[in-house]
Design goal:
The chain has helices at about 10-25, 40-45, 60-70, 70-75, 85-95, 110-120, and strands at about 5-10, 30, 50, 80-85, 100-105. With about 130 residues, the protein is of the alpha/beta class. It has a single domain, classed as 3-Layer(aba) Sandwich (Rossmann fold). Helix 1 (about 10-25) links the parallel strand 1 (about 5-10) and strand 2. About 30% of the residues are buried.
């Protein structure tokens, strides 16, 4: 159970840092700072989890949700908010937007890894 994660964040440093963290744990990572690459990456890579930043200048996270919610692109991928907002705000947004969960960017790496592994395990396995 290694899993695949797509990271969508306008801050390239965060994409690179999270990619390195997850790859050291044996998780395949595909990241982009351009929301316009997301449809292609979703179809091509079929991730288990999509970490989605809500505040991107090129396209608001809520608009990205419309793209990531299309089953034809995401399959059974878990959509997880990835933000620097407070836990309370993220908890409310998770419920309001109907996504699977959230990760606070300010959490320690062990906690971030635990949460991402949890969502990878929650994703139904694709037939090989």
């Amino acid at each position: 159970m290694n899993g695949k994660v797509l990271i969508v964040d306008d801050d390239e440093t965060i994409v690179q840092g999270m990619s390195m963290l997850l790859e050291t744990e044996g998780i395949s990572v595909f990241g982009t700072s351009s929301p316009f690459e997301v449809p292609l990456l979703l179809r091509r890579e079929q991730p288990d989890v999509v970490l989605l930043d809500l505040q991107m200048p090129a396209m608001r996270g809520e608009a990205m949700l419309e793209v990531t919610r299309r089953k034809s692109m995401t399959g059974d991928a878990r959509i997880v908010l990835f933000s620097g907002r407070s836990r309370r705000e993220l908890s409310e947004l998770t419920e309001q937007l109907g996504v699977d969960g959230f990760v606070c960017k300010s959490d320690d790496t062990a906690q971030i890894l635990r949460r991402i592994r949890f969502w990878i395990r929650q994703t139904p396995r694709k037939a090989s």
